[in-house]
Amino acid sequence: MNKTSIENDTCDTGPDAGMPSGATRTRQRYLSIHGALMLAVIVAMTPALIIIIASGVEQGAELAEDARLSAARQVEAFAEIQARITESTRQMLRTLAALPGFTGLNRDGMTEILRAVHGYNQEYLNFTVVDTRGIVIASSLLQTGMYLGDRSHFRGALDSGSFASGWYMINMIDSTPAIAFAHPLKDESGTLVGAVAAIIKLDWYNTLFENFALPDESILGILDADGVRLYFYPPKETNPVGGTIKSSVWNGILAGSDSGLFVDTGSDGIDRFYAFKKLRLEAGQDPYAYVVYAAPLEAAYRTSQAILKRNMMLMAAVALFTLASAGFLSRRLFGSRLNRIVAATVRLDNGDLGARVGPFDDSPDLGRIARAFDSMAENVERRAHESAEASAAIAANLAEKEILLKEIHHRVKNNLQLILSLFVLQSEESDDPAAFRETMENRIRAMAMVHEMLYESENFSVIDLGSYAERLVDLVAGAANAGIRVQTTADAIACDLEKAITFGLMLNELVTNAFKHAFKGRVNGALEVSLHQHDGRATIRVRDDGAGLPPGFHIGEQSGLGLRLAQLLATQLEGELSWNDGPGTEFTVTFPLRACRA
Questions:
Q1: CA distance 316 to 309
Q2: What is the H or E stretch that residue 207 is in?
Q3: What angle do CA 404, 538, 587 make, to 5 degrees?
Q4: I need a surface site. Which of 29, 278, 572, 586 has the fewest CB within 10 A?
């Protein structure tokens, strides 16, 4: 019913019938759309709102409390299993430590006993005895003479003279994650003579927990004293064993007492109830491990599905009542004017950006809404075109980033393979563990620095070799801890990730070689490193003021691994390693700048 028809009906049947045609008539007044819609919504939705609010409050409180209690019970059960494993290991090591062969450090006897005990306890990876220096003197699998004094479990037992636990480590037997416990050995007079240790392979925990039917997205974790994951079930890429848990979760555990519960978001982005239990070897000591059980908040509300289904049926009945009421009031109060607005809204919702309501009437609500709708539709149509252009640009940018990230992941894999190869080569060259560790640390830091600079850079595809060379030389010089004057000058040269790592490993070997040979036994000296580019080529020079190279020097099978690696890496840069005959020693590599591009 339009405005004209309403006015005519009023004139025909209202109190003003019979008035002269020129007389002034009162304009029909429309009910406010806000008042009309509020009347329809209140009448239709009040019963449903009361039901939903009441049941929701009751349900939420009960489910939250049930989930908290369930998580607390689960973590106590899992913690009891870990505590029994630890206590069993303590008793076994205590028994071994009390045997005469162990108090007297009888090597043959200890080895025979350890192998026999290991044969009956396959859940353990190895049993080992060290003296007070940390040297292996008996083991079920390891060779004697190895140094293990830097292992946290041996250090704890030798320093404290009591049962101790270690941190997360990669074991030496099969290079898999493990945790170890150690017990001190004392002779008959009570003097500390060594320590005996048992190593548990963390993969063995799967046999203990795989039969636990955890709810979907629930997790079980065991952490060492530093918050590093010793065990995680079920396995998940976002929560790797050996990795540190999310800082907010770790802080929540540390802030609690011996056990507790809190809510946080995990590394995989899922909100959970986190229940934890701290495990201590002795009362009053710091925890040696933490057991964590977490259940997703979403799962805590699954039991409400039956109630929700009932509410949905009630809501459907209410919706039918609402539609009937709204349709009746709409026809009575708004007529065809509201239908025009709704029709235009449907067209716009279906993608017709040219939908408009006009022409407008002068009602206080619907007229303004119609005008506002048409204005909004015009803005939507304009912004849709702008959004389409922006979306295309974003999609292209995301595709580029995705390709770049895949390339970085591929190169990281190659770098790990390279590290493994360097470990093998260095192990064949060196029988000095300290030198082996220092050499490999420098090489790995050289590779890690590339990724660190890449992370700091806005451009994820290139590295500045100049800045890289300066930082790398400072790193090696700092590690050498010598009073050597080091001067580095370098041009800015853009280089891709893979070639930058090749360059960094080569420079690391040349600088390390200088500190190893030119400055050995010296408290002063000078080292100059320069990197410059000219005519499409780059030149890196490493010069020291040492005694120089021996006459007829050449790099061959008798040369050290470092120089052989440097020569090979220079070849990979399409360059050649050369050197002078003194005074001092200068190594030079010149390579084409095209070698710095992927």
A1: 11
A2: helix 205-209
A3: 120
A4: 29
Closest CA to 146 of 408, 154, 97, 115: 154
pLDDT for 94 equals 92
Helix axis angle for 497-513 and 433-456, nearest 10°, is 140
CA distance 204 to 121: 12
In CATH, what number is assigned to the domain containing residue 153?
3.30.450.20
**578 within some domain:** yes
Give the CB-side neighbour count of residue 104, counting CA atoms within 13 A. 6
Residue tagged 């640390």 (tokens) = 441
Provide the pLDDT for residue 25.
53
SS3 302: helix
User: Could you tell me the mean pLDDT of each successive run of 10 residues in the chain, 598 residues long?
Assistant: 40 45 53 57 67 66 71 83 88 91 88 91 90 92 89 89 84 80 91 92 75 77 86 84 88 87 86 88 86 81 61 69 67 64 76 72 67 74 78 69 58 58 57 63 69 66 85 83 84 86 87 82 85 92 85 72 84 89 85 80
Q: Assess if residue 117 is contained within a domain.
A: yes
Does residue 49 come out as left (phi exceeding 0), alpha (psi in the -120 to 50 range) or beta?
A: alpha
Residues 6+ apart with CB under 8 A from 515: 476, 477, 480, 482, 484, 527
The CATH number given to whatever domain includes residue 513 is 3.30.565.10
Domain annotation covers residue 533? yes
Question: pTM of this prediction?
Answer: 0.43
The pairing of strands 169-170 and 177-186 is: antiparallel
Quick one: pLDDT at residue 185?
Answer: 93
Give the domain range for residue 119. 99-171+179-197
Residue 104 lies in a domain: yes
Distance CA(545)–CA(547), nearest Å, equals 7
Cα distance between residue 321 and residue 324, in whole Å:
5
List CB contacts of 325: < 8 A, sequence separation 6 or more. 40, 43, 44
Quick one: 44 exposed, middle or buried, by C-beta within 10 A (0-12, 13-18, 19+)?
Answer: buried
Q: Give me the helix-helix angle, 465-480 and 433-456, nearest 10°.
A: 150
How many whole angstroms separate alpha carbon 223 and alpha carbon 278? Answer: 10
Contact 140, 129 (CB under 8 A): no
pLDDT for 9: 41
By three-state DSSP, how is residue 556 classified? coil
